[in-house]
Fold each of these.
Amino acid sequence: MRVFSAGIATETNTFAPMPTGLASFRDRGYFPAGKHPDHFNFFAGPLWAARLRGREQGWCLKEGMVAAAQPSGVTTRAAYEELRAELLEDLRAAMPVDMVVLALHGAMVADGYDDCEGDILARVRELVGPDVVIGAELDPHNHLTAAMVNNADILVCYKEYPHTDVLERALELVDLCAAKVQKRIRPVAAVVDCEMIVTIHTSRQPARGFVDRIQALEGKDGVLSVSITHGFPWGDVPDMGTKVLVYADGDRRKAEALARQLADELIAMRAQLQPPNPGIDAALDEALALDRGPVIISDGADNPGGGAASDATFFLQRMLERGIGNAAIGPFWDPVAARIAAEAGEGARLKLRIGGKISALSGQPLDLDCSVRRVAREHMQTGLANTPTAMGESALVECAGIEILLCSLRNQAMGTDLFTGIGCELASKRIVVVKSSQHFYASYALLGGPVIYAAAPGAVTMDLKTLPYRKIARPKWPIDA
């Protein structure tokens, strides 16, 4: 079997202030055809899965380019069209092929393209023809469109949030696509729009039980695959929202009935899916009132994994004003402050202007008297699916009992080694504020303290009614009554 795999992935926050250009892809992860490293990469799940299965089964695997960018604002037209052209040219060079498996995201928006993934899949389909099997792995925070479903034989979303199952779902995708090539299955798709947008934390009930149940359905009674599109509310495109995607083996009615049933279950539990979101002061009050720690507070509104700058000062400012010490916060994407602290060196005391640099959603810069605790020229943290994530030149600085993690590469908090790897003893802290919406949970929950999901100003605000939507389908709960 001749197999081609490649990928282009980023999550676009259409309300975020910073555009996504080619440099954003090269900073996060860009590998030309045939140059992907010999280890698993988060945004190349299908390629790695095809390597594993291909070695077992003697496939001829042709590897195209893989490019991924940190979530940010709208991708520039030039960047998208250049990357798309490279992927398609790699595919042309690999043809003829029996199967194409792509690593996509599902919420990439470029200047002039509201549905980048649908556009890519349509062009791949045009190139390979109707008989070649096309599959793609998607992040569940996608905008599932008709163009995506119609031009792919199989789409599989990660089921877990935080996304700890990327490789498992990639293997599932590759196995289903191979079965389709071998004419052992005939996947037919059904999609139901829930007409809502919800946060689905699979680390807590009722989402945990729901995901367990849909996984138990797969591979039985003709049900091939079930994916839940959570949706990405910070993308203002027509197809934004929560959807259910079911593939059945040759039985469209079965697929449609199950998709409708699961959608109705999701709609019925929607009010329970979103955790409480207290404001900054309420979150701090709640943390201080708890007698065990460290208490983890999610500053999801400044989550770089959702397109925010990760330099907002709202939480830090209130902690300083209230005299809250024995705390840690980060990561602050502030390459200038990180460089100055690194140059000053460990043990130095100096004045630093921290954060508040990118837009009004970053708050005001804070001028602080700091001591430099630790410096790392090439700091790393453990990211999703245990993949290494670079933070660049970084520094841990302290001001008034608060340790602040400064970094030069924009990535959200995922592994606790973001802090511990640069000398911050998290276990002894009373409060730890992380710039992340949920991907921190798998690692930070192991510290044993409570987790509070706070509401703060920022580009990834949970107060969706404040966002100036122009394109989304309405009505949509909870934006509309």
Amino acid sequence: MAHLQLNKVTKIYEKNTYAVRDISFSVQDKAFVVLVGPSGCGKTTILRLVAGLDDITDGEILIDTVRVNDMPPKERDIAMVFQNYALYPHMTVFDNMAFGLKMRKYPAEKIKQHVHDAAEILGITDLLDRLPRQLSGGQRQRVAVGRAIVRQPRLFLFDEPLSNLDAKLRVQMRAELARLHKRFQATIIYVTHDQIEAMTLGEKIVVLSNGTVQQIADPTELYKHPRNKFIAGFIGTPPMNFLKGFINETGETMSFRHPDIELHLNRKFRDYANQEVIVGIRPTDFSLKHGSPIQLTVDVIEPMGSELYIYGRRNSTMLTARLDEQHRPNTGENITLRIDPDKLYLFDACNEETLL
């Protein structure tokens, strides 16, 4: 496998349009790293630069300490799995998986062994004689992954490989990819816009926005300690609620005042007294019993089995909360939710960096 290092990598298209700017991160040998962010943030561009499909404008890419900026794709020993499978429609599954090895002049017996080993791992041995049009979406995706596996490359690049699958199959394929990583101890970079995929697959996650790195951390660190408001709102389902207002201090009493909502605070907020700030509340942190009260009128209820997503409003302010099914309110009902001040997130109102 391989160790990958990106040092201040920049890609500029025509008219000074930056696709990515000063991207720096490392992928350790045998690691599973996920690049996540909204559409247009530069995720796929980074993969293409690593694979050698696009030229770098500035910076450098190192694979096992070797600078590969000017190295052609075929010499980088990288396998890439795309969103659209890219299978040859006139070839059987076996021939699709064997194609790369045949181009490298592997012996026929070795090709057969590699293909059958990969097919057994992926559970597609009985599909080797079929054509792609005779396969389901999930089966085609397995073939695409198998085609990458048989090459035994130093580095795997996955570009949103599960986005064309239905929700149930996507969950199954996520589990299969995680198992494959453990079995092969492969070095993997995985691109997705789905933060749930990122959180469940990634050992380390690189969060991108507008072509720049926002934060690099493991899933728990990202969720509990987001570096800024963008990350706090992007990571977590349902997304975090945000309220802009002022922190007031009256004697020993601290409070956060928003046009529609007032929250009682503890003394840990005293350093930000009389400042305009943004308060963040995760829907999962609301309670019915403990903390500062917030009265809402329930607009929409989304049953999710054992829990509910409640969408409510206080005047013109909308909030989302997650509750247990047993506490289900009615649409139009006024309810009182509570939030522990220790569970509040605090962001600077100007630069949106995390304060608490």
Amino acid sequence: MPVVRPLGQGLWEVRSSLPRDRIARVIFCIVRGHMVLLHGFLKKTQKIPDEDLALARRRMKEYER
């Protein structure tokens, strides 16, 4: 799987593997040619939790103003 993948609606995910078999994710968007990091977390399940996606979407809307 690629290191960066689209999540839809303008959101992207960067994957990172950490020591001790931990997995980190950073959700970002592109606003006016700039990469805006919206949310980072340690992943505990296969699916990105809905509350993490909702938080990233709310933060993205703030930057789009």
Amino acid sequence: MKIKNSVLPAILAGLMTSGAAFATPTEGASPIHINPGAEAGTQGAGGEVKFTGEITDVSCEVTTASKSQSVDLGKWAKSYFESRTETTQTPFTISVKKCPETVAKVAVLFDGDKDSSDSTLLKTTGGATGVGIKLYESDRTSTVAIGTISKAVSVTSGSGSEGGSADLNFFADYKSDGEAIAVGPANATSNFVMVYN
């Protein structure tokens, strides 16, 4: 038997207004809420982002003494900064060993909280204000800004299981960031990662 075109819309209208089973989601299903008044925003043509990379076994071993070290920058009077902007530089070294033959050069990326007035400096904590910690390359003049990679150092080849090794020498000091100097502890922590080749 054929249902006439005029009857079918009436049946569908009745199902929609009578609270038919279709109105309730099945058990375990999440209901879908449609808000016709919500603004979805205007969408336009986009593009693509390609991510590439590689997982390798190219790695040296950071020496135990280098993994967790403390560098004492000394105690400095507040009045010192009235005529100077930086303190005396203090040396420190990060050493690696057991480098595979595939590693020719090694560098360091220093990370940490940046000083709010000078983003090249490491932010200090503990109470003192107006100073940050500045890092230098081994030449004592080239700055290693926080979040950047240092100059690469060549790995010295080793024999057998000893592998290659390298010493990366740096200097650190307190530098005025231009804000008012306040006394107190001026400590900071920088995490670092090794960068190869």
